[in-house]
Amino acid sequence: MFTFLLTNDDGYFSEGIRALREELRTLGRVITVAPDRNLSGVGHSLTFTQPLRIRRVDEDFWTVIGGTPADCVHFGYYLFLDGKKPDLLCSGINEGPNLGEDITYSGTVSGAMEGRILGIPSVAFSAFGREDVDFSEIAKVAKEVVLKVLEKGMPENTYLNVNIPNLPYKDIRGFMVTKQGKRAYKEKVLRLTDPSGRPLYWITAEEFGWHLEEGTDYWAVYHGFVSITPLQLDLTNYQAFEKLRNIF
Questions:
Q1: What residue numbers bound the domain in which 159 lies?
Q2: What local confidence, expressed as pLDDT, does residue 150 receive?
Q3: Measuring CA to CA, which of 9, 138, 167, 193 is 20 to 30 A from 130?
């Protein structure tokens, strides 16, 4: 039987994490540690400036009050697993996709990144769809990815960003290893006022979208494939490395 560490950024109450938890429990023990609220867009942050509390939700299931996904990974690894590495860390299933540059904001992807930093093979799962998402079907697809990773392993210093189309399991066209795409957003900052007349500001997107370039994460899910993008911790731009060494 396998041991899994599971987290997310949508909160312990989300349908996505509960559906994935049920599928993983058919394979072994699942230590679940998730934030107490929705933290979409929180990115890769750790809480150093204040203490945190935990609350037990169910068997092997805790929520970290005020904690981020990266905090939750630390609690799961150091507190509930006593520093013993699980077979796999899973983050998600996110309520909405994490494609292109959006992964830099994603708490879901950052949960997997934190797992990889701790030396744990890690996978982030997101649903390509925002309305009427069938998480039970998406969790079945996620389980297929988990089984393949457990069987074949994962390269060192790599973690996976997996986006799954919101389709019935039988309608998924297959699995595709992809590169990170590019988003095509139109964003703005809204200026509002509160009841007292004081200004408020809200960052929002007028249009969501990604460039439909073949071989990218967006191209795959748009055409009904599961997108599997390998990510790495090393953010060095090696193409620019030699050019910059000749300058400085």
A1: 2-181+211-245
A2: 97
A3: 193
